[in-house]
Amino acid sequence: MIVCPNCNHPNPDGAVQCEACYTPLPATTNCPSCGATVQADAAFCGQCGYNLHSNTAVPEPTIVGSTIAPDMPVELPPLVSPDPMLELLQPDALGLNAPAQPPALSTLPPTVVAVAPEPVQAPAPVPPPAPEPVQAPAPEAIAPPALEPEPAPVVQPEPEPEPAPAPVPPPEAAVNASRTQLQQVIARLFHVQSNQEIELPQNLSVVHIGKPNDRIPPDIDVAGFSNSEIVSRIHADIRVEGDAHYIEDVGSSNGTYINNLPLLPGNRHRLRPGDRISLGKGDLVTFLFQLS
Questions:
Q1: Residue 175 belongs to what H/E stretch?
Q2: I want to staple 252 with a disulfide (CB 3.0 to 4.6 A). Which of 4, 33, 72, 235 is the partner?
Q3: Burial 184-207 (b: 16+ CB within 10 A, else e)
């Protein structure tokens, strides 16, 4: 049996390749001691342990005797003169491939061969002469810079004293001043039925509207207008407070209406330009408030 060294498959004797993995099998021989089959490169027999290298035959050297030339006279045939035809048959009989003869010496003068010039060493640089020390000129006297004249001090003007606040006028003077300002605004009542304008007195703070009576004479008398019988003798008052004008009913019989709405006694209404003032019912005695 030959065991495959790759897959350990036992193969029959004389096999060249493994039957299982097709690996080439090693060559075999027989053990000289027990006759078992062993590999040719094995050192010992696997059956009996015989040393396979101990029986290796060493070839004996062959002794060859020296050749002795016999002592016999050798006869040489006479030399035959060569045939000229045979000489022509010899290779290169005409001497075409003969080595070239050395050239004849020429009678011309030899050519001068240019020789590379030897490098010329540059002369060592001569150090420049040391410069002579230059004496610095004596420093001239530097004149001190001219001092600039100091600027004259700026005299700031003294602040003017603030004007003293005007003394607060007494209450009476304030009322007079307010009356003076009110003189610039002129209030008027425009009578719608007669297209007549009535200017309110400018020196009064309360203007009475009504008809002649013994208690409070009216400042604006409506007795001359049509339908004046519905107006009471003491009907309404217009009060001036600063730049505002207010109207109030003072207990008339037929009432006072502002823009067609009744003005309740004890209440007052601030008048604005265009307000419609009706004295009594039915809008028969009607005034428009105006400012200019």
A1: helix 171-182
A2: 235
A3: eeebebebbeeeeebebeeeeeeb
State the Cα–Cα distance between residues 289 and 277, nearest whole angstrom: 7
- Could you tell me the two tokens for 147? 């001092």
Q: How buried is 104 (Cβ within 10 angstroms: 0-12 exposed, 13-18 middle, 19+ buried)?
A: exposed
Cβ contacts of 253 within 8 Å, gap of 6 or more: 232
pLDDT of 110 > 90? The answer is no
Distance CA 195, CA 190 (A): 7
Selection from 24-28, 263-267, 277-281 with the highest mean pLDDT: 277-281
What single DSSP character describes residue 179?
H
Task: Provide the b/e sequence for 21-33 (b: ≥16 CB within 10 Å).
Answer: eeeebeebeebee
Q: Which residue reads 């703070």 in tokens?
A: 205
Concatenate the DSSP letters of all residues of 77-134 into one string.
PPP-PPPHHHHHHSTTTT-TTSPPPPPPPP-SPPPPPPPPPPPPPPPPPPPPPPPPPP
Average pLDDT of the segment spanning 6-33: 78
Tell me the C-alpha distance between 42 and 29, whole Å. Answer: 9
Question: Is 215 in a helix, a strand, or coil?
Answer: coil
Helix/strand/coil percent split, the chain, to 5: 10, 20, 70
Report the alpha-carbon distance of residue 219 to residue 200 in Å, rounded.
8
Banded pLDDT at 152 (limits 50, 70, 90): low
